[in-house]
TrEMBL record, chains A, B, C, D:
Gene3D superfamilies: Aldolase class I, Phospho-2-dehydro-3-deoxyheptonate aldolase, domain 1. The keyword Ribosomal protein does not apply. The gene is aroF. Residues 97-330 form the DAHP synthetase I/KDSA domain. Keywords: Transferase. This is 3-deoxy-7-phosphoheptulonate synthase. Its EC number is 2.5.1.54.
Length: 343, 343, 343, 343
């Protein structure tokens, strides 16, 4: 059950509804969106029935009470037919723009991060990416600079005037990451780290949720629902390639996810052609494919000196490929009937 | 080893080279292309060494002798750096056009086939598709009209003025299919039916080779090589979706195949968004994704009455979706810097 | 619809039933089993209804008329609750034995084949395997000796006193293979080569049907149904590993297939630990796992000189591993409550 | 680099070696095993070179200094050729026993847990399992009783005299779980939750590490290495089925993992036939298959009233199946040359 409050409902009105729910034995999850507040209700069937009997639509601030039948409720398109626009700092991700997020895979040094950020700006990025906590398959690989990396990224973001997105891999780090970042990233390996999803959902910052390596669409939306349940509907999905049998690429970008997710959910969806293929030469073709399929944006790795990168150098754009990316961002959004995000 | 003959080499010159190869204990496969003849040599290392010692470049009609190191030789891009253009009747498939192949999944009746063909023409198709021999998972499903279906399709092709492509599923049927069709289609289930590949390679008609359900890129190119070895380089690859874990679509279109195949091979590649998703609503988004990735064309199912279709009705385009397809064909090729194929 | 004839029904009685079916517009597939004849009926719903109205149970030789609801009918367990025993020459494959099929992956020379056959006999094999027509991913790999290989294998089989099983890859070769072999093998790449399945079904010899590389259980049983429809119920399923993401083995043996197939179908099922793993060191552990799961037998590659093998040498058993296999065959069947097949 | 200390090395000796490592700029991970202490060294190439130059073998308590070449070091078999025995309370898991872990999927009530534990004991279990923190795909599904569940499980374990294993899903819960449990379980969804792996590694209790749904063997061993690096070598691997395309079972048990893991690593490996298939009727056949492949034990779901289970009822053993399991535990270990674990 989901309760949609009228726009401008007061904190008291919201409290009254929450109390009604908890009195009936249910749990209430309050999602304070930009336009209005949504209250998700979780509980056994008898709880829901008793709440229905009490008819919360009688409450003056309740706009609608919905029984949602899809397994995901708050992120479903059933009661929210338009794709949402999620604001990251002052940069929108949604149906009327094509948003470019770019930056280094990992924050290594202030100089490298600044150079990469300047490359990102020049290509048309409106959000800066960069990893401080890196989830690495091997414990012997570079694990990121941690808190120091967060500070470098935040400084560089301020310097170039872009909001920042960065990955969080441990629920215990959510607070410190949320202090520095404008958007929290949940990586592919953590898509079903439910404790982390819940902590990120409660942090008050938009979340970029990457798809698990072999997750189904339903599993992915269920993961988003874990975030939404903590009161946060500012979620952007990110398709980043799935595991297949093809050995010549790291993963296989699943463009079908784009129209299907737009059909099932109101969340915007972007694609990550860099982590998908793991190969620089495929980033631009895959970016065009993703936008052709209707993606709301791109997240792309760039690096001033990929051959020295501590992480995923072979996929980082540099040189001419950056000009091609800038060209794509300068022309494609208009062709797709979307306004490019002016900075 | 591959021997490239000079343009206009005589039949005698070709015979001389072939004899030199067989004398040395090798096997020669002659590929008489439009522009020039290519002779593939297969043999053990000592055979190849003895041929090298004989230095066939001395022969006046031999333009080049190439030792190819990739596992596929005749279809590799190593010695043939431009994407080829394959002519199907008078319709090109290649780098300077976006070719639309459309028609019914299965030929059912003359009337249905004609209606579907007219829909195809209107949308901008330059080649007509239609299945007469249908490979069906269940022996109790409609298996196609067979030879009678071939005749219907050929008649309709003549009536609307389009060359036709149709699937062949049995090496024993290659002759009769080649008699009627302008292009032979090898289906996903038969990608490693090597006897069929060889028979199709010897039939003197271009071949559309669909990718196996979970085939790697190398396995796919090896299958193409089986065709090429029989003297036929007029091969078009078709990406039609791979098996993944996602239950809400039949298969998952792998757009990465497009740039990778263009990188590895000189064969053109088209995509089949209809068989990939198995869902009408996804055909157009996937078509745009495939063309964004650089595909040389599309093959699309259309049906005048999908609800009555004997095969794959849910994926057949009809009504407004056809207008959208026509619109896409009228505008997208130019945007991609390709000339739409005028009829 | 499936019509089960009474034991000992005359040819005339069978003809009468077939005529009744074709008169009603249906197609009849006669399966003359050891004990009794089964007639499969294929046709549209109205055909089946008209046949039902005629009530064939009135015919004195008709024992039963069954409407089968599973997608596969003749191979389903629904009307045939015991696992069948398939005789290959004088060697049974079925629920009361553990049958060992062994021999070289490919027939290379008479001497190599004889040596391998003697190794097979010593380990307890009651059927000899050996490939004459080899389906190879690359057209440049050894494709088998063809007809000459068949003759070598048949000669060796006679010499050591074992019936033989060998692969057929082309419907046009079914006759010549059936002339020499006691059992036809359909390989993993041809599991959905429907023309080949039908030809093999009509050849009058038992068929060993390997599972496709990523086939579902239903697709596999449907492939078996294509064979059964041609009147041949002497089918043995063979699980030989499925494609997974693990790079250190060629394929992954799916032991779950064994109990599930025994649950869905009356066909016996054996496992091929050699082609599954592609590694000699894993053949015995996987053989034990397969038998633990309830498999009715094993098919195993052996070679006197694996380092010289023209095909799949790394998986061929030799030396001590053969003793271990013999030991397993001497003890395990009794532990499993099965009689080892005495020769 | 891995430094193996002589048996009985003093705490001072260990400190001296650790100091030498950190002085050189490396990180040291101390693993105090039963027999001897192992110190893993992580650091850049120059750190390792400088340490090599210092030649730690000169230290009187250093038995060996090993440069390990496999990507996992502490869990590799390279320097530890025998399979380890991990003690869980007084129950061994290792090469000389077949250990049965059994209990309810989720702890629901004291009565249900006690009944399930008594069933487990009767079948021969020496360790009790039960989930208090349940990782569920949907946020609307039963998430386990949490801390209250831990207490129930610990009480029941004491009552029936079995050590207990239970899952931990959040690094912040490791302490409380370690307080109650004799072994920590890391679930399939958390195999690459590196923060959780590290926290579990530092908790001083043995760890049961389930394989990720589509993890490769290397990724799995790398995850184990994250645990080992925190000084804990008491790790047991658990194969619990991988994701495949087969819809009639939940997952597909990969028995090949058993011999391959025994080949690559010294860690014991058990199988979970319950979570693999998700079907009660397949638990026993898969258990036999896994033991046939050489598994060191089983973990099995049992429930007194599966039809009322809050989690995974369809896979829980009950009734006759329990007798069959008891029978298997009473006879199979001896046949496999292993002593059944007497309680
Ligand atoms: C690690 C990253 O991505 P993923 O989680 O998709 O692998 C990343 O974007 O830095
Ligand atoms: C059957 C067809 O396609 P595929 O082989 O890709 O399934 C078809 O195009 O008609
Ligand atoms: C080629 C063979 O097997 P598969 O078809 O299982 O690969 C074989 O058994 O020789
Ligand atoms: C959830 C469990 O298993 P898995 O992590 O293998 O799904 C379990 O054993 O309770």
């Amino acid at each position: 059950m989901v309760i949609v409050m009228s726009p401008g409902s007061s904190a008291e009105a919201i409290d009254e509804v929450v109390n009604a729910i908890t009195d009936a034995g249910g749990e209430a999850f309050v999602s304070a969106g930009v336009a209005r507040t949504i209250i998700g209700v979780v509980g056994a069937t008898d709880v829901l029935e008793s709440l229905e009997a009490r008819d919360l639509t009688q409450h003056p601030s309740v706009a609608e009470v919905l029984r949602v039948t899809s397994p995901y409720k708050l992120v479903s398109k059933e009661n929210h037919t338009q794709t949402s626009t999620v604001m990251v700092g002052n940069a929108p991700i949604g149906p009327s723009s094509v948003t470019l997020i770019a930056g280094p895979c990992a924050v290594e040094t202030p100089a490298q991060t600044l150079e990469a950020a300047q490359m990102a700006v020049q290509a048309g990025a409106t959000i800066l990416r960069g990893g401080a906590f890196k989830p690495r398959t091997s414990p012997y690989a570079f694990q990121g600079l941690g808190a120091a990396g967060l500070e470098i990224l935040a400084d560089v973001g301020r310097e170039v005037g872009l909001p920042i997105v960065t990955e969080v891999v441990d629920a215990r780090d959510v607070d410190i990451v949320a202090e520095h970042a404008d958007m929290l990233q949940i990586g592919t390996r953590n898509m079903q780290n439910f404790a982390l999803l819940q902590a990120a959902g409660a942090a008050g910052k938009p979340v970029l949720l990457k798809r698990g390596l072999t997750a189904t669409y339903d599993e992915w939306l269920m993961a988003a629902e874990y975030i939404a349940q903590r009161g946060n509907l500012d979620i952007v999905l990110c398709e980043r390639g799935i595991r297949t049998y093809e050995p010549s690429v790291r993963n296989t970008l699943d463009v079908t996810a784009v129209p299907v997710m737009h059909d099932l959910s109101h969340l915007p969806i972007i694609i990550d052609p860099s982590h998908a293929a793991g190969r620089r030469d495929l980033v631009l073709p895959l970016a065009r494919a993703g936008l052709g399929a209707g993606a709301d944006g791109l997240i792309v790795d760039v690096h001033p000196h990929p051959e020295q990168a501590l992480c995923d150098g072979p996929q980082a754009l540099v040189g001419e490929a950056m000009d091609e990316l800038a060209q794509l961002m300068a022309t494609l959004p208009a062709l797709l009937g979307r306004t490019q995000n002016a900075r």
